[in-house]
Specification:
The complex is a heterodimer of chains A (534) and B (215). Chain A has 534 residues and is mostly helical. Chain A has one domain: Up-down Bundle (Cytochrome C Oxidase, Chain A). Chain A has helices spanning 3-6, 16-20, 25-53, 64-99, 108-130, 144-147, 152-179, 192-224, 237-269, 278-292, 307-335, 344-367, 369-375, 379-409, 415-441, 456-486. The mean pLDDT of chain A is 95. In chain B, helix 3 (67-92) packs antiparallel against helix 4 (96-127). The chains are: A mainly alpha (534), B mainly alpha (215). Chain A binds chain B through residues 97, 102-108, 110, 167, 171-172, 174-175, 178-180, 205-210, 212-214, 216-217, 220-221, 224-228, 230, 233-236, 239, 243, 511, 516, and chain B through 12-16, 20, 23-25, 27-28, 31-32, 34-36, 38-43, 45-46, 49-50, 53-54, 131-134, 143-144, 146-147, 150-151, 153-154, 158.
């Protein structure tokens, strides 16, 4: 039997209540991981149902109303229950204290509370799905969301609750990073994933409360007809959109910034080379967080905001390209003359670089005012945000999941199977969504149940791509579950990383470090230190 | 773990010393207060938008609010902030009984605030000065008077809920103080609820002129 496993956080202490009432960040991170993977699966099922329906024009498997519900639930589940908590609350929770040489996050009880608040929000969301799934789209735009006969209140209340979970995670991380770093770990010796989580946490804390109050007003509008968003009563639906996007645009950076942090870790480990431009990558995370609050109006170019506002928002949107570009070029420069090895985490990392670049550049297209009016609410937008959110964040999440899997579970997965899965996901993803760029540029509107015959070949291609994607994820499920039971046990450091999590056993003991480490070198000093794998 | 001076009962295992724990707690509370400001910020933003669009009406509607009761409530809330601060001072100089007394006074002031607020609400409900579609009053000239009362009830209602939440926590602190849990060595939770209470007070200091005075 494996000694590290027996002495690890997984087995100490034992018993169900020791898990339910745990304050160990690793266990909370793991419970989050199981929960978000469940919702990733559920959201994925809705995605496949949508693509199956769109295989041919007219009715294929569901009615128009059911279709509206399917895309709403796909969006709402993927955004609020999967992608926002995915990297910070699951992987971040597990890894952050290990990365900075701490025994736990600053507020362990708040961390556990945040998980149960997430569970409460998830239960409301499931209740909403069972009692007449929402059909408003994940954005809950008024006035339709105040009139729809589906269960809007329970779903928006679920999102309201989930917001608190997100705020508490962010608050916890900011304080942890400020106050609990090990001696010698200065700000600029922190691994870049920490910088990513820090920038993310700032947005979580500053943007989420605005969504909370917006959803409260929406619920009050539905229940009491307070009229603030109702044009018939002198209210303003565009005000709802302003409030909503003041949160939801920064929220897309809640999703991508921690992913960029993971990429900064994996790219340097699998290139066996010091990261290029550490300071530039660290500061560009903060720059993205800052600019994220100034660009929400680019969602509303066709909603009737003033022309001067639209122009300013368009210019500000271009600014996001600068820090994102800085990161991308620094990652490329890190690869240059590195000793690159192509394990599964690295394949996902390279997928990220490729796909995020396409997603980011098409974002610049959409930020251009004149082009936006043409492409607004078409499949071009759908393809763009899936390239950023799935091609970017999900690929980074998978890179991180595969990278830290041996540390989290103390098991190695089958590398060949993982490579096959990664390639299937990459190919399936591009088939699904690249075709949607073309559909969108030809004028196919998003969220439509039916379409003209001329769009059928591309729609069918996209649907087949989604099946390949589904198979890729199924392969992943099989080898990951297999590894939990039959996987080989790794040593401390299977990839040869220099950061602190690789100095403790896999899986780590309950208190992480026997003695709080003293940090003397940078996180990526491969030029100075020779690291051996295992 | 033994209750030695180097490891007091309140120090959690992942902090290296009491000072680090206290600094972290206070820093976390400040961030939480920031989220509260943004939560109310959305409402203040809605207030500004609708005031700009219905300027006449906002002026006429604000005359319907009772300035005398509003002023009294402002004084009561500011006084409760003073007693809150004095309670923390009491713990700092290790006079737990005095601290408990001041915490009790804070609770009483908070309760008086809510009672006055209740009478204001009741009067408005009686007159039909209600939010949105329940608005039946006819005495306010100008466009969309129901919007003013929507904003009034949502803002003061959310503020009132914060008062109630604060009272619950202060009551818990009062019990803990009487049980001798806090001393000049450890009183962080009381200090944190103090910060919260001052913020709730501060939000009222903005609500009062915006709704009652300038109209």
């Amino acid at each position: 039997m494996n000694a590290a496993l027996e002495q690890s956080y997984l087995k100490n202490p034992k018993g169900l209540t020791s898990w339910l009432f745990t304050r160990d960040h690793k266990r909370i991170g793991l419970m989050y991981l199981y929960a978000i993977m469940f919702f990733f699966f559920l959201g994925g099922v809705f995605a496949l149902l949508i693509r199956l329906e769109l295989l041919s024009p007219g009715k294929t498997i569901m009615s128009a109303d059911q279709y509206n519900q399917a895309f709403t639930l796909h969006g709402a589940i993927m955004i609020f229950l999967f992608i926002i908590p995915a990297i910070p609350a699951a992987l971040g929770n597990f890894i952050l204290p290990l990365l900075i040489g701490a025994r736990d996050v600053a507020f362990p009880k708040l961390n556990l509370a945040s998980f149960y608040i997430y569970v409460a929000g998830a239960l409301f969301a499931i209740y909403s799905i069972i009692t007449g799934a929402v059909d408003t789209g994940w954005t809950f735009y008024t006035p339709y969301s105040t009139e729809s006969t589906t269960s809007v209140i329970s779903m928006t209340f679920a999102v309201f609750i989930l917001g608190f979970s997100s705020i508490f995670t962010g608050l916890n991380f900011i304080v942890t990073i400020h106050k609990l770093r090990a001696p010698g770990l200065t700000w600029f010796k922190q691994p870049l994933f920490v910088w990513g989580l820090y920038a993310t946490a700032i947005i979580q804390v500053l943007a989420t409360p605005v969504l909370s109050i917006t959803l409260v007003l929406l619920i009050l509008e539905r229940v009491f007809g307070i009229g603030i968003f109702d044009p018939a009563m002198g209210g303003d639906p565009v005000l709802y959109q302003h409030f909503f996007w003041f949160y939801s645009h920064p929220a897309v950076y809640i999703m991508i910034l921690p992913g960029m942090g993971i990429i900064s870790e994996t790219i340097t480990v699998f290139s066996r080379k010091k990261i290029f431009g550490y300071n530039a990558i660290a500061f560009s995370s903060l720059a993205i967080a800052f600019v994220s609050f100034l660009v929400w109006g680019h969602h509303m170019f066709t909603s009737g905001q003033s022309e001067i506002a639209a122009m300013i928002f368009s210019f500000l949107t271009f600014l996001v390209g600068i820090p994102s570009g800085i990161k991308t070029f620094n990652w490329l420069a890190t690869l240059y003359k590195g000793q690159i090895s192509f394990e599964a985490p690295m394949i996902y990392t390279l997928s990220f670089l490729f796909l995020f670049t396409i997603g980011g550049l098409t974002g610049i297209f959409l930020g251009a005012l004149a082009l936006n009016v043409h492409l607004h609410d078409t499949y071009f937008v759908v393809a763009h945000f899936h390239y950023v959110m799935m091609g970017g964040t999900v690929m980074a999440f998978l890179a991180g999941l595969h990278y830290w899997w041996p540390k989290i579970f103390g098991r190695l997965y089958n590398e060949t199977a993982a490579k096959i899965g990664a390639i299937l996901v990459f190919v399936g993803f591009n088939m699904t969504f690249f075709s949607q760029f073309i559909l969108g540029s030809q004028g196919m509107p998003r969220r439509y149940y039916n379409y003209l015959d001329q769009f059928q070949p591309l729609h069918a291609f996209s649907s087949f791509g989604s099946f390949v994607l589904g198979i890729g994820f199924f392969v992943m499920l099989v080898y990951l579950v297999h590894s939990l039971f039959k996987g080989k046990t790794p040593g401390y450091n299977p990839w040869g990383g220099l950061t602190l999590e690789w100095t403790v056993p896999s899986p780590p003991p309950p208190h992480n470090f026997d003695k709080i480490p003293e940090i003397t070198h940078g996180p990526y000093d491969y030029d100075k230190i020779l690291v051996k794998r295992n | 773990m033994a209750n030695t001076p180097s490891h007091p009962f309140y120090l959690q295992h992942h902090f290296s010393d009491a000072q680090q724990q206290k600094d972290s707690a206070k820093f976390g509370m400040w961030i939480f207060l920031l989220t509260e400001i943004l939560l109310f910020g959305g409402l203040f933003c809605a207030y500004a938008v609708f005031r700009a669009w219905n300027h006449e009406m906002f002026y006429n509607a604000h005359l319907a609010l009772d300035r005398v009761l509003g002023t009294i409530n402002t004084f009561i809330l500011i006084t409760s902030s003073l007693t809150m601060a004095l309670a923390i001072r009491g713990l700092q100089v290790n006079k737990a009984r005095q601290a408990a007394l001041y915490l009790g006074a804070t609770l009483v002031f908070a309760a008086i605030f809510l009672v006055i607020k209740y009478f204001e609400y009741e009067h408005k409900i009686h007159l039909g000065q209600l939010p949105g579609k329940y608005y039946t009053y006819t005495g306010v000239a100008g466009t969309n008077p129901h919007i003013f009362f929507s904003i009034y009830f949502v803002m003061t209602g959310l503020h009132g809920l914060h008062i109630v939440g604060g009272m619950i926590v202060i009551a818990m602190m009062l019990v803990n103080t009487l049980r001798g849990k806090y001393s000049n060595e450890y009183y962080t939770p009381v200090e944190l609820i103090g910060l919260y209470w001052h913020l709730v007070d501060l939000i009222w200091i903005y609500l009062f002129p915006f709704l009652y005075l300038i109209g």
